[in-house]
Design brief:
The chain is an alpha/beta fold and 345 residues long. It has helices at 26-36, 49-52, 59-63, 111-114, 126-139, 152-159, 161-169, 188-191, 196-199, 211-217, 224-237, 254-269, 286-295, 300-303, 317-330, and strands spanning 15-19, 41-45, 68-71, 79-80, 93-95, 99-100, 105-106, 120-123, 142-145, 175-181, 202-207, 218-219, 241-248, 276-281, 284-285, 307-309, 312-314, 339-342. It has one domain: pyruvate-formate lyase- activating enzyme, CATH 3.80.30. The relative contact order is 0.11. The protein binds iron/sulfur cluster (SF4).
């Protein structure tokens, strides 16, 4: 499916479904007040899964006109990091989801295989997450990714969730956080008022791709030059910065496309310290891929004849070649021990 910006559908967030239980939370009030100025309609619901979990929803149609769902999360708040996710050498690797789904529309996004709805859920009870993180911290240091299953920085202007999280994290000396994004938002206001010590424990991780990949497959996301400026700004604001070359896609002229891209990255960032980098090829569970292909039947990217190993679909031996090529291009830019790789073969 092409980028879903068009004139047929409502713009995003014209409709906000809010659990009655969620309405009294400050984040819900912040979001509703902001969207009221745009004329959005609020519809009270009993349980978010009544809307989000319905069967026979169209992920692509909802992506074209995303609604927002405000909910209170119950049950687990912290999950162990999945085997296909890079832990960057950290033990006690967890992730948490303050939100589900993302305003961007990447053709390869696993969320379209994971959820039956493309609407964005915001869980407004952040304090409950903080309590559970503190329980884990009482046992051991924690490495926590808070921008999986969403792009939290892209939603920050609406939610303020990252600023709230930083206020919590500032008191947690043994908590290291990763915030992954494709956005190019200005992070200087995010950092404002927090100590250098607090910010040093919050890694801003930028997913970077060649412009030809961005324009073809990463719909609604900023171009590379803007992302590179955002990396520089994050460093200047006091955050450690991580570069994520993941997922690499098997495109024609791979070496030329990625070679020129990596030269652009090296040139733009040669004078700032980059914490580390991850390199990974596109990889997805066969169950998710089946749903993704159904959602995007015209996607050449998804229809590729992947090799399937233990129910993970990827590029096989070619994937290893792709990773090794990118790793070679980063030699001299980053020490080997700060380049982390993920692939299946
Ligand atoms: S930015 Fe990440 S979470 Fe958002 S659509 Fe793209 S791949 Fe999915």
């Amino acid at each position: 499916m092409k980028s879903s910006t068009n004139t047929i559908y409502n713009p995003p967030w014209t409709h906000v479904y809010a659990e009655r239980e969620a309405l009294s939370y400050p984040i819900a009030q912040t979001v509703i007040s902001a969207l009221a100025k745009r004329g959005s309609q609020v519809i009270e619901i009993a349980q978010y899964m009544d809307i989000f979990g319905r069967t026979h929803q169209s992920f692509p149609a909802q992506k074209a006109s995303q609604a927002l769902i405000l909910a209170v999360k119950h049950g687990n708040f912290l999950y162990p990091g999945a085997a296909v996710c890079q832990d960057f050498g950290n033990s006690n690797f967890y992730y948490t989801s303050f939100a589900m789904n993302c305003p961007f529309d990447c053709e390869y996004c696993y969320l379209q295989g994971m959820y039956s709805s493309a609407n964005i859920v915001l869980f407004v009870n952040q304090e409950d997450y903080f309590s559970e993180i503190q329980n884990a911290l009482a046992e051991h240091p924690v490495y926590l990714c808070i921008s999986y299953d969403t792009d939290l920085p892209a939603l920050e202007g609406l939610t303020g969730m990252i600023r709230r999280y930083l206020a919590f994290a500032s008191g947690q000396q043994t908590l290291t956080t990763e915030l992954r994004t494709k956005s190019a938002i200005s992070v200087t206001p995010l950092a404002d008022g927090f100590s250098a010590d607090t910010l040093s424990r919050v890694i801003m991780a930028y997913s970077l791709s060649p412009d030809s990949i961005i324009s073809r497959f990463e719909h609604r996301t900023p171009v590379l030059s803007k992302r590179l400026l955002a990396v520089r700004e994050a460093h200047a604001a006091g955050f450690p910065v991580r570069l994520c070359f993941d997922p690499l896609l098997s495109v024609p002229d791979f070496k030329e496309v990625y070679g020129a891209f990596l030269a652009q990255v090296r040139e733009a960032l040669h004078d700032i310290p980059v914490l580390d980098a991850s390199i990974g090829v596109f990889r997805i569970s066969d169950g998710y891929l089946k749903r993704m292909r159904r959602n995007r039947p015209d996607s050449a990217l998804l229809q590729y004849p992947f090799s399937n190993e233990n129910h993970v679909c990827s590029y096989g031996a070619r994937g290893m070649e792709m990773v090794n090529f990118v790793k070679g291009e980063l030699a001299g830019f980053l020490p080997k021990n700060r380049i982390f790789t993920s692939f299946t073969s």
